[in-house]
Amino acid sequence: LEKIAETYYQSSQNELVNLQQKNSQTEEENLKLENELFDLQQRNFKFEQNNQNLRLNLAKQIKEFAEKEDILQTHIIDLQNEKQNLASNLTNLTEQLEQNKLINQQVQEQISQLKQEETTLQEKLAQTEANIQELKSHKESLTEQKEQLENKLSQSQVNYGQIEQEKIRLHNMVKGLSQEQKLTIKLKT
Predict the structure, then answer these.
(1) 3-state DSSP call for residue 140?
(2) How many other CB atoms are found less than 10 A from the CB of residue 29?
(3) What is the average pLDDT across 118-123?
(4) Are the C-beta atoms of 177 and 33 separated by less than 8 Å?
(5) What's the confidence (pLDDT) of residue 138?
(6) Contact 35, 147 (CB under 8 A)
(7) How many angstroms separate the CA atoms of 114 and 117, rounded?
(8) Which keywords are on file for this protein (predicted)?
(9) Considering only CA atoms, which of 80, 60, 61, 86 is closest in space to residue 135?
């Protein structure tokens, strides 16, 4: 009977040692996960700050681009109106030149002056068309930049969602380990 009791005692001691080792391992894993969760929370906080700053900067830049786009659109309209006016003036001058060809030698000097004005207007018209093309190209560039900024914002929001999911997963793991630890302590007692 004494030998049986000693064997049972030794078995209980071994089981207690095993439980203590498992409890120690669980505590180490729990501490490791808590440290990882803390690091992730710190990274998440920093990411949220960076994301907020990025969104503010993006909103500011988008607003600035929109204002520039409005100004450029106004310039384009003004230049188009000027182009129409110049084209109308050019047509009128051409008609006047055709009529003046039938007039005497004294009016020939007037015709020469009108031709010079016509050349000047054609140059202005060509310059105006070149300016319109340049402004249109600049507008397209601004639109592309705006789309790139909106894409960056969308990617930042996706990254934020992924970190939130990872945080929830780690939190659930820590919660599960904590419940398992409580069960182990109850078994000890």
Answers:
(1) helix
(2) 15
(3) 95
(4) yes
(5) 94
(6) no
(7) 5
(8) Coiled coil
(9) 80
Helix (H, G, I), strand (E, B) or coil at 189: coil
Q: Is residue 62 a contact partner of residue 146, using CB atoms and an 8 Å limit?
A: yes
Residues in Cβ contact with 173 at an 8 Å cutoff, skipping those fewer than 6 apart: 33
Measured CA to CA, the distance from residue 153 to residue 61 in angstroms comes to 12
Lowest mean pLDDT among 79-88, 135-144, 173-182: 173-182
For 52-68, the pLDDT digits (tens) are 999 999 999 999 999 99
Which secondary structure element, helix H or strand E, spans residue 30, and what is its range? helix 2-100
Task: Give the pLDDT confidence score for residue 32 in this predicted structure.
Answer: 94
pTM for the full predicted model: 0.32
Q: Does domain 2-188 have CATH number 1.10.287.2610?
A: yes
Site of tokens 């659930």 = 172
pLDDT score recorded for residue 173? 85
For residue 99, what are its two tokens?
């009529």
Q: What is the mean pLDDT of the chain?
A: 88
- Rounded to whole angstroms, how far apart are CA atoms 57 and 64? 10
DSSP collapsed to 3 states, 95-129: HHHHHHCCCCHHHHHHHHHHHHHHHHHHHHHHHHH
Closest CA to 26 of 176, 182, 181: 181
Q: Where exactly are the structural domains of the chain?
A: 2-188
* Tens-digit pLDDT profile for residues 126-171: 999 999 999 999 999 999 999 999 999 999 999 999 999 999 988 9
